[in-house]
Amino acid sequence: MKIAKNVSGAKSKISMMWKELKNLLKGVVSQRSAEIILAALEIKDRPVDIFAIANLLEVKVRTADTKDEVLLHFSEGNPTIFVRHDAPSVRQRFSVAHALGHLFLHSEDNNSNIYFSDASFNSNSIMEMQANRFAANILIPENELIELVENKTPKNQIANYFGVSEGVLSWQISDIL
Question: N or C end of the chain: smaller count of CB under 10 Å?
Fold first, then answer.
């Protein structure tokens, strides 16, 4: 992942704890949280490297031998995201983005386990829908998607550009257009 240079050019100014960024998001409408995170971290490359974002935020990401899609675990206040080791890469990317959504939108900086087994678009839970929206917005920034759709770029090319499945892309298109 390339990070746009900040004023000093020092990576340490970009690297921040997730709690600091979460404080920055207080009072922000949840639909704009992903956009603010991308801007704060100066992420410009596509596809968005969600694993690098987690790393910059000091959130560990691990693969696990599990049938569940994702697990967000806190140990002494430090979050770790576990994703299925055998899931396709686009699925792992969405699962990490989804878990980051829960971290920013729903966690209370506690030391407990938060268990999510349904990082899918089939859930009717408000929290799950918000985490899905966050994941889609951080992986597929709205302004770029609108431009590509208006230019009649084929769906498969758009999905490849953003590094997402065509299903996630279709959901994002139907949600914002």
Answer: C
* Selected residue with higher pLDDT from 26 and 58: 58
Of 60, 53, 36, 58, the closest CA to residue 141 belongs to: 36
Q: What is the CATH number of domain 11-140?
A: 1.10.10
C-alpha 72/C-alpha 113 separation (Å) is 7
Structure tokens at 15: 């690297």
Sheet with 113-116: strands ordered across:
60-64, 78-84, 70-75, 113-116
Structure tokens at 26: 């207080």
The pLDDT tens digits of the residues spanning 98-108 come to: 999 988 888 76
Whole-angstrom CA distances from 162 to 13, 68, 107, 114, 136 are: 26, 24, 27, 28, 10
